[in-house]
Amino acid sequence: MGGCTGDEEMIPYECGTIDKEGAIPMNSKLTAHLYLFYAATTFWTLFFLGGLGSGYYQKWPFVSQLLFIFILPALLLIAFAPKLIYCVNSDYALGSAIIAALYFILPLQVYDYIYLHLHLKKPMTYFFKYWYLTYFSLVPLLLFPVISYRRRNKMMMFRV
């Protein structure tokens, strides 16, 4: 079983290092968790700042909401998904994708709850008024497994 004893040859990967056996040392696991958490927090912060002058995007027409709140962020997630999924470093592509998706779904929902319900005192039915928050929280769960599956199949083609 791999671990971080200091004697192993370490191989760099995007969120830290792994040993020859594929185990992530504890400090790299923490780095990977923090990376995913910071990525989700940064994503939400940019989304939040973009919506400050418009009542959290409520004053935008439906087509603008759809394009700039749903489609554009989904494209950004597609671009960054392989690195985010790889940070989980699970043997199972689907498991890695679901864990990485949860790192986005849970913080985004918690931050929206804190901002809309606790800070702005919106009733818990805010999920209906701010429909794009509800639907967008499903996007990582739908995209990440597909991206992980495609990436894993592409990598299998190049193995000898």
Supply the helix-strand structural class: mainly alpha
Low confidence ranges: 1-8
Number of domains in the coordinates?
1
Strand order of the largest sheet: 1-2
Give the N-terminus to C-terminus distance in angstroms: 25 Å
Note the total helix count.
Answer: 6
**Element-by-element helix/strand order:** EEHHHHHH
Choose one word for the global shape.
globular
- Using only CA atoms, what is the Rg? 18 Å
Describe the structure.
Helix content is 68%, strand content 5%. The protein is built from six helices and two strands. It has a two-stranded antiparallel sheet with strand order 1-2.
Pick out its properties.
5% strand; two-stranded antiparallel sheet; mainly alpha; disordered N terminus; 160 residues; 68% helix
In short:
With 160 residues, the chain is mostly helical. The chain is built from six helices and two strands. The protein has one domain.
